[in-house]
Design goal:
The structure is a homotetramer. Chain A is of the alpha/beta class. Chain A has helices at about 40-60, 80-90, 110-115, 140-150, 155-165; strands at about 10-15, 30-35, 65-70, 95-100, 120-125, 130-135, 170, 175. The interface of A and B includes residues 51, 54, 140, 147 and 150 of A.
Chain lengths: ~180, ~180, ~180, ~180
């Protein structure tokens, strides 16, 4: 279905705070908020990550998945997995955090694919897995709360399909 | 339609920042956020009123009306209309503000009718004019943004009626 | 003593939070911090008055007297003594507050005499009653704490005189 | 002079933001504020280090030396010198920072010697090199400003000695 422009998967090398790796596809049906950060980025520490924690505490996990993505593009030697583990422990960050996959270039894969301008960056995906919002820097809580609820209020993909796809076309990768 | 339990009208003696008095009924079709305050209430000045200003700046006025209600229940002599006018000017409050009608008792009419526990109090009304939320004190921005958007996303009354009222009953004041 | 350029007295019409009117002269021997404010001035409410409360809580009253001065130059009808009394009660302001004397002009007497540019204005007087600092707007706490302590650390007038007045004149109440 | 109880030297393995290592002894004559921190300690990042930056900006360096001490007692592998260098760069910390010397025990040397309860810890030394204040956690800016100025206002050691030590006693480690 040409109308749905599925967002590319993130690529990661490691995950924290989750028993198994997470993919955008596996989260289909829920709204996804991804907060890309670096553990030594002051704006991430003072603003982006606390906001992601507040979002986690405010919305139901059945409606919304909050994901951290550690997209390191500088000081690589200071922000390896052990350092990140200590950071997540000290800052009491409990939502799942993946490590954006280094790419041989300075920028990690997901950062380059999505064209992050820096960190923190917030991405909002709808229940169907489409990217609906990409913000570098700060979004006020009031506006973020409204945007998240607007996405949560949209029909989940499954329901949409049930409703509209009576005579749909099925392809190997699923029905549209 | 008996399912709709219309909220009682506020009663006021005076309005600021609006060419003519406003009623809940006249705002039907839009979500309404009412912030009840006193100009000499510290929590209203530091929290409730700035939040109402942020809400005004964040949402479209065609979706949401923000209304201040000056519900004075103490220090009446210090918070009369002239004092309120100066206060609104100094604090750059631009949304419409009504003065809750004194009732002969200590509490003004709307405060007593709705049972405000104090100020600030936030009331949220849906597009159909029903009271959906009553909070004394602080609501975090993230949650308020989400609640407002949930209400904005609901079908306006008119549409609901078109859908559900095939066999409705019509009275002089409209169809239910 | 010609070296000492005594600051002019404030003139007031009324006092709150003190059993009797206070004068700069009667406070001689202590450092005096005067915070000039208007009850409907947003910067006074959010910044100047809370700072004066912190100063009151931090320094010994035998070293430092904190004085509020209500210097009303606009919205006079909204900021009369009754309104001020309610304001001081609601904002839990416990230090002495005098009402700057109206002068027939728009500006009250002390404001005009000292040339306040607006409110909040902070004046610091040393133990000898000399004006040592005049700031319109914000002083960071760290700097204010340092300036107050520098003044507190200066020799009180009496001691200075004892040291320097080898050929002074003695009266029953002490030597000068 | 038995009244002077000199504070023990800090021991370090490395310094940042200074061309050569600093010692308490070499800073004699100036007041010294030492902020002990860990780069992954949230309270240090949000409170202790910004306060040390404000102190640096507020006082003259001829009166007061601000020193950071990286006293790592947990997550050692995440807070090595390279990580610290990146941290200081990202957080724009410009005052000299020494690395507290590991001691074979979990606690670094200076932390153990002084009995830090954790980080952030603030130590204030007077011009004579005596420890005058030891605080774990937060000190309000107003109080810190006052305490620093009180120490700055004290007679420098040299002067004290000139006055009192006419017939002093000299030992190998110096004259008292």
């Amino acid at each position: 279905m040409s109308a749905i422009d599925l967002a590319p998967e993130w690529l990661t090398t490691e995950w924290f705070n989750t028993p198994s790796p997470l993919s955008l596809e596996a989260l289909r049906g829920r709204v996804v908020m991804l907060t890309a950060f670096q553990m030594l980025c002051p704006g991430c520490v003072s603003d982006g990550l606390p906001q992601a924690q507040r979002v986690t505490a405010t919305f139901k996990s059945s409606d919304l998945a909050v994901i951290g993505l550690h997209s390191v593009f500088e000081h690589h030697e200071a922000m390896g997995p052990n350092a990140l583990r200590a950071f997540l422990h000290e800052y009491k960050i409990r939502f799942p955090v993946g490590v954006d996959r280094p790419d041989g270039t300075g920028l990690p894969h997901t950062m380059r694919t999505y064209g992050f301008q820096g960190t923190p960056t917030t991405l909002l995906f709808d229940r169907a897995g489409q990217l609906r919002r990409h913000v570098f820097g700060h979004i006020p809580d009031l506006q973020l709360g409204a945007e998240l609820m607007a996405l949560i209020g949209e029909q989940p993909l499954a329901q949409t399909e049930l409703t509209s796809d009576v005579n749909g076309v099925c392809a190997p990768e699923g029905c549209r």
